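User: Before I run my own analysis I want an independent prediction to cross-check against. Here's the chain; please return only the structure tokens and, at the end, one sentence I can use as a sanity check.
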Amino acid sequence: MESILAKQSIEKFKRLIPILADPMAHKTLHLEMDPSQDYKPLHLSTENGTKYKIVNNIPCMIPELKYDSKGEGCHQELWGKLQELEYETYRESPVGVFSIDDFQPAEGLSTILFQLCRNENCLDIGCGVLEKPKYMVPTVGDETIQFFGIDPFFGETERAFPFTQAIAENIPFKDKSFDNVLFSSSIDHVINPLISLNEASRVLKDDGTLFIWNGIRNFNLLYLKWKMRISPKKYNKHHQWAFTNKDLIKLVKKINFRLSCIIQTSKDWHLLIAKKKRRN
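Assistant: Structure tokens:
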């Protein structure tokens, strides 16, 4: 049986074109079209000739990877294993992974996002494969949030927002493209959180807002045993990393962010909010 692939409308694709960039060098891309058909995009190419294919109007922007858990060396195999595990997770237990309707902690995130981001755009890093995660709030009157999403998984369902297949360590957008950036239960799944947050800072506008919504680990024996292990670290079957609130605060302060607050949206789920500092 032929697998069903996600697709995207030309309208959503056109919204991506002005802000897409080479995920490695962050430079402008050249769009190649099929001359035999009416507006059928084929590839996005870099100035050095690297091509990224476009499938069903979805840009496929994952480069050859070079990051391990320390950000060193070429580890395409490690990344492949992580993605296979994530897909298995999606199929075994989608609640929480997808922020589907049955996952109640997402309701609190939805309310906060609408209060702080309405009439602005927001890049969702690790948006998943659902049409629309529960935390993506609906339009209220004339006010809404313009969501964009990236995820390593191409998926089988058309998203309700402009989507690009990409990873957090190599975000394929131009500098200062977004008012807000969101990691929704995804920062503990990336290969390298520090590189991912550096990329988030790059694509954020000055004074833009970073949201990290995640299940927070307790400072207990299980966490301490993991913390003391030799890299590459892997917290458990479904999570590459584990974070306490203290960990997240330390992490964002290493990048160009100032902490605004941490909000507890449910018993174990917290939302860290930080602002990108203006560079002198």
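Sanity check: The mean pLDDT is 84.
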